[in-house]
């Protein structure tokens, strides 16, 4: 997402995406943030696995982070972007590799390091999920005036930029 948009809905979607990845560390197993879907929920069928709420959300956040990154991420960079510890990020990467959504590649600057990149299937998956989220966002924004949309975009961008989770 390297192109800047002046469309308030695009700016809001970008800010929300940035905030989603900044949750301040790994969630505890008993936490179930509102809006997530566990096995059998909206996200489970599309993702094709049996995962708990936090597991399914973490994979979506992983795909989102990789799609938003200007280049492939290291496992530690991915862990920070998703808000999990490094061992959990490694497990997420393995799940993504097993499903064909991500691939490991050698870091061109340091062959000892591995970077994680989206595959074409992973990019299609996250585009579809982003499209659904974007439709819901567009629908919610119909209740706002143009000035309110602009102000919300400005404030959410400021919040995302300064969030220190």
The largest sheet is: 3 strands, antiparallel
Can you list the strand order of the major beta sheet? 1-3-2
Shape: elongated
Structural classification: mainly alpha
Could you give the distance between the termini?
22 Å
Write the topology of this structure.
Elements: H1 8-20, H2 42-47, H3 53-68, E1 73-74, H4 75-82, H5 86-98, E2 102-107, E3 110-118, H6 120-141, H7 146-162
Antiparallel strand pairs: 1-3, 2-3
Helix pairs in contact: 1-7, 3-4, 3-5, 3-6, 4-5
In short:
The protein is mainly alpha-helical and 165 residues long. The chain has helices spanning 8-20, 42-47, 53-68, 75-82, 86-98, 120-141, 146-162; strands at residues 73-74, 102-107, 110-118. The chain has a three-stranded antiparallel beta sheet.
Q: Could you characterize the architecture of this molecule?
A:
By secondary structure, the chain is mostly helical. Helices cover 58% and strands 10% of the residues. The chain contains seven helices and three strands; from the N terminus they run αααβααββαα. It has helices at residues 8-20, 42-47, 53-68, 75-82, 86-98, 120-141, 146-162, and strands spanning 73-74, 102-107, 110-118. It has a three-stranded antiparallel β-sheet. Helix 3 (53-68) packs across helix 4 and helix 4 crosses helix 5. The chain is elongated. The two termini are 22 Å apart. Residues 23-51 have low confidence and may be disordered.
């Amino acid at each position: 997402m390297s192109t800047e948009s002046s469309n308030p809905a695009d700016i809001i979607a970008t800010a929300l995406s940035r905030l989603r990845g900044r949750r301040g560390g790994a969630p505890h197993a008993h936490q179930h943030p509102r809006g997530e879907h566990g096995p059998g929920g909206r996200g489970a069928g599309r993702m094709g696995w049996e995962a708990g709420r936090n597991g399914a959300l973490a994979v979506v956040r992983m795909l989102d982070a990789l799609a938003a990154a200007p280049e492939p991420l290291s496992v530690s960079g991915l862990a920070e972007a998703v808000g999990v510890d490094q061992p959990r990020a490694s497990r997420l990467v393995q799940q993504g590799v097993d499903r064909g959504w991500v691939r490991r590649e050698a870091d061109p600057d340091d062959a000892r390091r591995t970077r994680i990149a989206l595959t074409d299937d992973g990019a299609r998956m996250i585009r579809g999920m982003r499209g659904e989220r974007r439709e819901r966002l567009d629908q919610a924004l119909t209740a706002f005036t143009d000035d309110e949309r602009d102000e919300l975009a400005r404030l959410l961008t400021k919040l995302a930029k300064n969030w220190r989770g």
